[in-house]
UniProtKB/TrEMBL annotation:
Lineage top rank: taxon: Bacteria
Gene3D superfamilies in UniProt: 3.30.1360.40, Ribosome-recycling factor (1.10.132.20)
Molecular-function GO term, any one: ribosomal large subunit binding
Ribosome recycling factor domain boundaries: 21-184
Record's function text: Responsible for the release of ribosomes from messenger RNA at the termination of protein biosynthesis. May increase the efficiency of translation by recycling ribosomes from one round of translation to another.
Protein's recorded name: Ribosome-recycling factor
One Pfam entry name: RRF
Organism: Zwartia hollandica
HAMAP family on file: RRF (MF_00040)
Transmembrane residue ranges: none
Amino acid sequence: MSTAEIQKSIEARMSKSLETLKSNLAKIRTGRAHTGILDHVQVEYYGSPVPISQVANVTLLDARTINVQVWEKNLGGTVEKAIRDSDLGLNPIGMGDSIRVPMPALTEERRRDLNKVVKSEGEDAKIAVRNLRRDANDSFKKLVKDKTISEDDERRAQDIVQKLTDRCVTEIDKLVAQKEAEIMTV
């Protein structure tokens, strides 16, 4: 494997870490309604758990209310129970074949707790990126040991990976700061 292939692989894996962070941050509830909040809620459908999006249409009614339009009438109660039992702290209201999910206002203490969770997610993403950097550097050292590349090529490749790592860490910090600001906005 060449240094360019290693760099491409590491870059792809680092961007995947950023995407994972973005999706994890999207699940953290703020005061506003967001259809992505219900993405990980599973509903029992004919004996197997499936995401809500596969049994219902999830839309926004307004800034603080999610509407879940169930496709099969007999699933209404099941979907409502799944939302209520999830770890999101939501209290859905069944209305025939649709379910309204109002977003409760966040308290100051809850906002601080959510900020701690956001910082933890950001730190986990940074650790993943740094581990990828370490793996790349180890691969470069192995190539030098096998006499496939020179030590100068190794240093250049490590510099490129370090710049990529710095760019990813900066992006992670930016995402975390945006989410913290969003959470603290009343």
